[in-house]
Design brief:
The protein is α/β, with parallel strands linked by helices. Helices cover 43% and strands 19% of the residues.
């Protein structure tokens, strides 16, 4: 081991990444070598080969685990891939906030302690007409906090058609149970009427809750009351109405052919007391849960000790504040998730054509174009899609799954789609400057097929 570590190449590596990583990698490589010798797999190995293995193992251990990648899947808000990419302006503000001190909880006018909510509260007031807005770690936390504050020890009425599960095991009945509120189910899976809610309201009722069925669609013999009707019922019977919107759509997407995606401002205008949604779904900002609406219930939520446990950090505040400010300027193009939604099939086709030409020029490759569909994802707009133009990549010697795996393991990783045993690239979710890396990853795959 000492002889190996004394070699020129490993000493240079040690300079760069520190002794600990090199020693650990050397130990592992030697251990593997002993295993291979004792199993009879090999009888000897050159020192040069060993050194090469150690360098590779060290380099890989020195890489951060969380790495940027290229999303060529066409799923804009891919939860596994980190949902919304942030706007350039949000990243800049986040960077300057992270680097030094800030007035996160400091009132510069008065020279005394302030609240971290102050930075986003008036932006959401302008954007949505909200009296008060709070921000917590994510929307699951927002729902938990609202239920716990407003309905602990009492009942919350939810339609049986809205007892949903979101990815990552967020389930309405379980969140209700954890909040200490008793779930009172009404109606049936497919039909719930206003009368079902009305009949269930008692002196134990604290909340009516409406949940957006983010990730599935119910069609056929279905019914649920209008939001307006629920608002009237709640105010007549003196209970609060909470709406979990989930996706946090702030602009009307009907021009894209996207239907039934509720817009947060519309719910507040209809008279919902508290609306909750995610920061990193259709809003296109950082992971966060937004609680917004009427002052009185939100001040109560603000005083809950759980709020402190679920609060966001300064980086989230910085990124969210900047993203929401872009909405106030109608600068949707600056928000990558929205920009990707608004890309037309023709815009994508022009880029796809250029990429296909470059890939087809590589030895062994062919690349064709065909019409396809991108999806918004992130538990929104189920069953709906955006028209796109796909690059279908084939290789003389490699199967689609083998290519998919090789692209996934390249640097940076490229995440492609496999459909009907074909490898597809959807440029809707690829930043133009990343196209070069896709070509490079394909070229490497061709030179080095066993990667
Ligand atoms: C996505 C979603 C949640 C969970 O939001 P996170 O920000 O992922 O915690 C809760 N409710 C609904 C309706 C959702 O769509």
């Amino acid at each position: 081991m000492d002889d190996l570590l004394a070699r020129e190449g490993l000493r240079a590596l040690e300079e760069r990444v520190g002794r600990r990583l090199v020693v650990e990698a050397t130990r592992k490589v030697l251990q593997g070598l002993r295993g291979r010798i004792s199993s009879g797999e090999i009888s000897s190995v050159s020192v040069e080969m060993l050194e090469k293995e150690i360098v590779a193992a060290t380099e890989s251990a020195a890489q951060p685990s969380l790495q940027p990648l290229i999303n060529a899947s066409g799923v804009i808000l891919h939860t596994n891939l980190g949902r919304a990419p942030l706007a350039r302006a949000a990243i800049e503000h986040l960077g300057e906030t992270a680097t030094g001190y800030s007035n996160l909880e400091y009132d510069l006018e008065r020279g005394e302690r302030g609240q971290r909510d102050q930075h986003t509260d008036c932006l959401f007031a302008q954007l949505l007409g909200a009296e008060r807005t709070l921000v917590v770690n994510n929307n699951a936390a927002a729902v938990l906090l609202a239920l716990n504050t407003l309905a602990e020890g009492g009942e919350v009425i939810v339609s049986r058609g809205e007892l949903i599960e979101i990815g990552g095991s967020f389930r309405i009945p379980e969140i209700c149970a954890k909040s200490g509120a008793l779930l009172r189910e009404v109606g049936t899976t497919n039909r719930t009427r206003l009368g079902d809610y009305a009949a269930a309201i008692s002196d134990r009722t604290r909340l009516l809750m409406r949940v957006h069925a983010s990730n599935f669609r119910m069609v056929g013999f279905t019914e649920r009351p209008d939001l307006k009707e629920l608002v009237s019922l709640a105010s007549e019977r003196n209970v609060l109405l909470l709406e979990d919107l989930g996706s946090g759509c702030l602009v009307d997407l009907s021009s894209l052919g996207i239907r039934d995606e509720p817009v947060a401002g519309a719910s507040l205008r209809a008279g919902v007391d508290i609306v909750t949604f995610s920061g990193d779904k259709m809003l296109g900002g950082p992971q966060a849960g937004i609680l917004t609406g009427r002052r009185e219930p939100l001040e109560k939520i603000r005083r809950n000790p759980l709020f402190r446990a679920l609060r966001v950090d300064k980086l989230t505040v910085a990124a969210l504040e900047t993203t929401v400010a872009l909405y106030l300027r109608n600068d949707w193009n600056a928000i990558p998730a929205l920009r990707m939604m608004y890309l037309t099939r023709e815009q994508i086709a022009a880029r796809a054509e250029r990429l296909a030409e470059r890939i087809a020029a590589l030895p062994g490759f062919t690349a064709a174009l065909e019409d396809g569909e991108s999806v918004i994802g992130g538990g929104s707009t189920p069953g709906q899609s955006l028209p796109t133009r796909l690059v279908v990549v084939t290789h003389a010697a490699e199967s689609a799954p083998a290519m998919e795996a090789a692209l996934r393991r390249s640097t940076p990783p490229v995440i492609a789609r496999i459909e009907r045993d074909r490898l597809l690239l959807d440029l809707r979710t690829v930043f133009p400057e990343q196209e070069e890396d896709i070509v490079r990853a394909c070229a490497q795959l061709a030179n080095n097929p066993e990667v």
